[in-house]
Amino acid sequence: MADVDLDAALSTSSYDAIIVPGGPPAVPSIGTLKKDKRVLELLQQQMSAGRVVSAICAAPSVLHEAGVLEGKKYTAHFSVESVVPKLDKSSAVVVDGNLITSQGAGTGTQFGLALVEKLKDKATADEIAASICWKG
């Protein structure tokens, strides 16, 4: 459950990272997030500022709609392949500069660790991985 609603979140001028979740709000046929121009503009501003933009599962379809995947390497859930062209189907997580994408719920741990590494450092990500017995 979110700790702030979208209006409150959009009133903040900057974030260290934006994480777009998968599931129904991101699924192309429903498209709640990709239809909201405020969300798309926030993603564009975040990417232009060189801050972290990330998405998991179907959510890269929202990033595609915002135009922030242009010229980037990325992955997504196989169900959005027709909507999100050129996705890397062989990688669970793809990090390309300030963009981090992941395939789905089964790759969530790797996704989380990639975010920790990007926002903090590799040593902290490795420490967390060891503490949760992550062997990936």
UniProtKB/TrEMBL annotation:
Pfam family, one: DJ-1_PfpI
Domain of life (superkingdom): Eukaryota
Gene3D superfamilies: 3.40.50.880
Domain annotation DJ-1/PfpI: ranges: 8-117
A GO term from the CC aspect: cytoplasm
Protein name (database record): DJ-1/PfpI domain-containing protein
Species this protein is from: Guillardia theta (Cryptophyte)
